[in-house]
Amino acid sequence: MLTSSPRGTTDILPEEARRWQWMEAVARSLCARYGYEEIRTPAFEHTELFERGVGDATDIVEKEMYTFLDRSQRSLTLRPEGTAGVVRAYLQARLYSQPQPIKLYYIGPMFRYGRPQSGRLRQFHQFGVEAFGSEAADLDAEVITLAGDFFQSLGLTGLELHLNSVGCADCRPGYRQELVQYLTPRVGELCETCRSRYERNPLRILDCKNEACQSLSVGAPKVTSFLCPKCAAHLRAVENHLRASGMAYVLDPFLVRGLDYYTSTAFEIMLPGEAGGSIGGGGRYDKLVEVCGGPPTPAVGFAVGLERTLLAMKQQGLTPAPSRGPLVFVAVAAPEARAAAWEVLCALRRAGLNADKDFLSRSLKAQMKYADRLGARLAVILGPEEIAGGWVTVRDLQHGIQDRVNRDELIGYLQQFLPDKQVENK
RNA sequence: GUGGGUGUAGCUCAGUUGGUUAGAGCGCCAGGUUGUGGCCCUGGAGGUCGCGGGUUCAACUCCCUUCACCCACCCCA
Asked: CA–C1' distance A6–B6 (Å)?
């Protein structure tokens, strides 16, 4: 118990953390390119924010939240998703009084209580963006292309973008009615959960994976044919922009996202195949800011699951971020040389070189072996001879050759081995 | 929340119809004489056999409980 992390949590050990750093760096530089700035919001919020924002009829709020009372009996909840907190911050900081749109991104842990399984943890991580203050369709398209570029930059292929419109306050009720009418004589054929959805959120039935429900859905009236002129035009405009950007997509009239706040544009990025899951999704939520007590403010955003992204990369054999050991390892040939070696090590580090040493009083032989294991490129060896002569032995561990170098020329000599920046970023 | 699978050294695993000092490979540490890595050889350290209980003369091996992990469902990221 003391030696295992809580269920559904995991440590990201150095080898894995290298991949994360790389992936996050890709996300950050992409956001900079698109003009999105980072926002960091708290990992927990007032419970009401999620009940109101995410929707209290959603599964997330009904059974997946980490909710607790703090010492003064306030009900707080570990954020199950990122949008609600960002919306709250947008209002709290009155960002609506700045030039719109406000374009933000976040990377951080989210929490959902459920049975862990592959690509699903209780603490997981999302990268997401939110753009507030414009209802322009090209903003939807920008957000979607940003998501697409993210996966492309990582080298992922074969992803499918599913696009739909779930309508707005004007047209959704009409469609809903139509759908219910269609379903009413067939309620009996629905799966158990869908029978309760029939009452509370019939649109979600379209999204059910159950075969019986799916075959019913096929014959059901499609949202897209009930969209009001505004929503229909918006969807067409988004499509046009996507086409112009060269981004492939499939219209999926059955796509209904699980969060209540979506209006009009909804999309999901799927990874077809064995895992077959979605690794990201988003859409428009033009009513959410208002629902949270702010001025009417249209917005679009998406979130991608980082663990799932990493999983997909592994499936596709993409293994970035090779381990990079120190450039130089400082070894001593005899205990008397330790003080001098320490000085050399400090000087190398001050000069900006990655350098390391042994901390277990190992023999020279063992130090060399250790240097090799660390992946050091060079070994600087100091012993009585070197100290007496004011020089140092530099061994190239890659080629197995070594050289004498004067101590005051050492840094300049080593710098020629610095990996160039391209390699550094890999 | 529902269903199924698994749980032996740091890692991957073996362990005979329950039988007495629980093994291998890799890894780790140390040696293979005189200041040097990657190969090879030798030696060493390291295990509450997930936890608790039960059956038995005897359990890593059988039974129960519990915990954890994995997989599927639900749902989603």
From this structure: 19
